[in-house]
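Q: What residues go here?
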């Protein structure tokens, strides 16, 4: 079979191809983005308030974190291996016997009395008479209460 192919091309404007490709695939710097439509007012929600713990909540939370990290002890303020009783953890978290230390201790003892009876005179006496899970339960309740009271 003999197929003939025409070899003569018509001259085309060389700039024509450049124009066509710019239309099909514009250069990003030359394209102007359409402005974003504003969100409807009903869909814009205010940011939720950020909780900033008060001094008592922070002291209780830091003390419980201390117990989680270093361990909980009975019958002594500080165990030779670093564990502490509840009052020792409060002292470590507060850094000093300040208002936050006193108020956190009062709240902790109040929660201990709610859960374990009103007869507890001090945090050490209560701490030494209960199990780790019982003590932790009181700590967690005291932290929740401080959070609710925003103190």
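A:
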């Amino acid at each position: 079979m003999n197929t003939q192919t025409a070899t003569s091309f018509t001259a085309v404007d060389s700039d024509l191809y450049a124009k066509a490709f710019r239309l099909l695939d514009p250069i990003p710097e030359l394209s102007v983005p359409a402005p974003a439509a504003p969100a409807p007012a009903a869909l814009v929600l205010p940011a939720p308030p950020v909780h900033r713990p008060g001094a008592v909540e922070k002291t209780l939370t830091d003390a419980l974190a201390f117990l989680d990290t270093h361990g909980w002890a009975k019958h002594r303020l500080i165990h030779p291996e670093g564990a502490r009783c509840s009052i020792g953890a409060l002292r470590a978290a507060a850094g000093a016997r300040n208002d936050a230390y006193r108020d956190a201790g009062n709240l902790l003892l109040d929660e201990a009395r709610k859960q374990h009876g009103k007869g507890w005179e001090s945090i050490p006496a209560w701490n030494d008479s209960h199990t780790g899970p019982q003590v932790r339960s009181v700590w967690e309740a005291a932290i929740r209460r401080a959070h609710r009271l925003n103190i």
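A: Context that may help when evaluating the design: Residues 42 and 127 are 53 Å apart (CA to CA). The chain is about 50% helix and 0% strand.
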